[in-house]
Every structure is written in C-alpha cells, then in structure tokens.
Design brief:
It is a multi-pass membrane protein. This is Polysaccharide biosynthesis/export family protein. With 368 residues, the chain is α+β, with helices and mostly antiparallel strands. It has three domains: 153 residues, Outer membrane lipoprotein wza domain like (Outer membrane lipoprotein wza fold like), CATH 3.10.560; 76 residues, wza like domain (wza like fold), CATH 3.30.1950.10; 79 residues, Outer membrane lipoprotein wza domain like (Outer membrane lipoprotein wza fold like, Roll). Helix content is 28%, strand content 24%. The protein has nine helices and 18 strands. Strands 1-16-15-18-12-13 form a six-stranded mixed β-sheet. Strands 8-7-11-9-10 form a five-stranded mixed β-sheet, with helices on one face. A three-stranded antiparallel β-sheet has the order 3-2-6. β12 and β13 form a beta hairpin. α1 packs antiparallel against α9. The radius of gyration is 36 Å and the shape is rod-shaped.
C-alpha cells in the first residue's frame, strides 16, 4: 500500500504535464490544438506598429457624400405654421384683435389644407410658398384697397417641418425646422446627450429610407466635418444606449470585469489600466490577447490578436490599438503560476491518499 502514494503522485504529475503540452493553453504558436476543426476558424495576429497604422487608416472620419452635399433651401410655409402679417400705417389690418393682445393672437394660422384668410385678400394658398412669396402675394392683392401697401411677413411659430429625436437624448421628440438652417449639431444640442449612457459613436440619421451611422466622438478631431451636415424635414435622429457596448477583461488582471465604452473607442492601454493592470506575481506579459468574435464562426474566421508586453515599446503600440465592442481581453498566467496552481491541486490529493494509507495501516495493525 505504501507504494501507492508515489505511484499516484507520479500519475498526477504525468496528467498535469499534459496541461502544458503544445495546444493546451494560449500561446503564440498553439492557440488551439493543431489539426482541430477550430484551428481553421481562428487566426492569430500579432499586434505590431504596422497593424496599428493600417487599422488607424481604415478608421478615419467618413461621412456619406450625400449628407455633406445637401444644402437647406429657403424655408417654405406649411400647414400648422403661424404667420404674422404687418401692413404699415394700417393697424386694423396688422392687429385686428387689438394692439393690447399678445402678438400670437393676431397671427394667421395656416390651415391643414395649406390656406389662410386675410382681410381684403380672402383665402389664399400659403403652403409651399416662401415668406417673401407670401408677402408679395398679399401686397399685390391689397392694392385694391390700400395705396402702395407696405407689407411685411414673418413666421411666429414653426410647426409644419420637423426632425424627430429618439433614444439617449435628454429631450426626445420633434425639433422644428425653421427659416434658420438646422444643422446636425444644433439638433443634437437641443436634444442634449445623456453622457453616461449614450453611444455617441452610433448616432443614426434616417433620411429618405436610408440609415447613416455618424460618430459624434469625432468632433474632437481637427479634421471633423460634422458641422457641415444639415437636416431637413422628415429626418430622424436615433442615439442608441451603450448598454451592450462593452469589452471584457479576463485572466491574470487585478480586477476582471466588463468595461462600458465612454466614447467611440477604447484602446488596449486604457482597458488594462481600468482594471488595475496585470497581476505582477501571476501574469505572463507575453500572453496578452484580444479575442474578437464573428457572427458566424462556420463561415468567417475569428481573429485573436496577441501583444507581448515584455517589451517596453509594446505599451506604445497598446495605446494605439483600438478595441471593438464585445472584444475579450485575456491575460494568460506565467509558467510558474501554472506550476504553483498544479501543486496546490496535487497536495490536497496527496494528503487524501496519505490519510487513506494511514487508515489502511492502522486497520492492518489492529487485525494483527
């Protein structure tokens, strides 16, 4: 019986040795078991300055040309607008309800059919006309009762044209389009972004049946062109929440957890720093991986990026390597850590075997 203990420990060491054989843990040469079905679906890519430069070039600021080429036209009156008509030296026409009334009380509401009524002019078609066209039309019709009428026109309340805001805005709903061109940034400013929960890199502009994704975080770049985007009637802006926009830090880090994106991107250095960095006693600096999945592993090849942080220059590269939502950052254990963990697992087993041998010896002595 006493010989069973060394034999069991030797067997345990032999089995544990299999854990360190090539293909059983993540390393630069054997990410998965060679020849396995998974090996053809996973590509190991070293993170190098060249790779970072290529990805940075691919992630430049891009805005659809049709968004930049659109220029707002002169405002055209529509149903629901409240128009104020001034006829100089004729207060009975300018303010028929009396000058003591609020200015809106003397406004002319454009009816749902696009018409409005004005004294001595009658019912006229207002919808579709510019403010200047409406002013000229009223002035020409007033010449029958007023000599050389001096007419002015303005819109008191804009209601016929609007842009709709939804999602992670502080104020959702319609934003009126007025005779002052409404830019994308003006609309976002009026809605107010919920900074802690909005995915500012995923703003969606819906226009004429198409959707455009706009990264608001690029505003801080000197080459940003977002200020050149103007909105028009019927546009919709949806700002998604960042609930599902996370990266996951696992393995030999000081505080493994999920991190939520605060902007359009998060670099590898920021991610590792947010969890307190690598565990100095247990981690392997050469085994820092970024695991990037795909929607269909049967068709597409998943990429696993590897960075060797043993080199000081690697920290510069890590600062420029951009993570993507749902990336998993995994830091592998050092070889001595694997050995220590093996020992911690073997000794409880050895103690159990030793206890079993002692009990067996006692039983043998008692039987004698």
């Amino acid at each position: 019986m006493t010989r069973a203990l060394p034999l069991a420990m030797l067997l345990g060491l032999t089995l544990q040795g299999c854990m360190f054989s090539p293909g059983q843990h993540m390393d630069s040469g054997n990410l998965v078991r060679e020849g396995s079905p998974e090996s053809s679906r996973i590509e190991l890519v070293p993170i190098t300055p060249k790779l970072v430069a290529i990805e940075s070039a691919m992630n430049g600021v891009e805005v659809a040309p049709e968004l930049l080429s659109y220029q707002p036209e002169e405002y055209r009156i529509g149903a629901g607008d409240l128009v104020y008509i001034t006829v100089w030296d004729h207060p009975e026409l300018t303010a028929p309800s009396g000058p003591q009334q609020q200015i809106e009380a003397n406004g002319r509401l454009v009816r749902p059919d696009g018409t409005l009524f004005y004294p001595y002019v009658g019912t006229i078609e207002a919808a579709g006309k510019t403010i200047e066209e409406l002013r000229a039309l009223i002035a020409s019709n007033l010449t029958r009762v007023v000599s050389e009428p001096q007419v002015d026109a303005s819109v008191l309340r804009f209601a016929s044209q609007k842009v709709i805001l939804s999602g992670a805005f502080g104020k959702t709903g319609p934003v009126p389009v007025t005779n002052t061109p409404l830019s994308l940034l003006d609309a976002v400013g009026q809605g107010g972004v919920l900074a802690g929960s909005a995915d500012i890199a995923g703003l969606v502009l819906k226009r004429d049946g198409r959707e455009y994704v706009i990264d608001l975080d690029t505003l801080n770049r000197k080459d940003s062109i977002l200020h050149s985007i103007y909105l028009k009637d019927g546009d919709q802006l949806h700002l998604p929440y960042n609930d599902n926009k996370k990266v996951y830090l696992l393995g030999e880090v000081n505080a493994a957890r999920a991190l939520t994106f605060k902007g359009s991107s998060m670099n590898l250095t920021d991610a590792l720093g947010s969890v307190g960095g690598l565990r100095q006693e247990t981690s392997s600096g050469k085994e820092v991986y970024v695991i990037r999945g795909v929607d269909d592993l049967q068709r597409d090849v998943a990429k696993v990026y590897q960075l060797n942080l043993k080199s000081p220059s690697a920290f510069v590269v890590a600062e420029h390597f951009k993570l993507q939502p749902q990336d998993v950052v995994y830091v592998g254990p050092a070889d001595v850590t694997r050995w220590n963990r093996f020992i911690s697992q073997v000794f409880p087993t050895a103690n159990l075997l030793r206890t079993g041998v002692a009990i067996q010896d006692d039983m043998s002595d008692n039987s004698n």
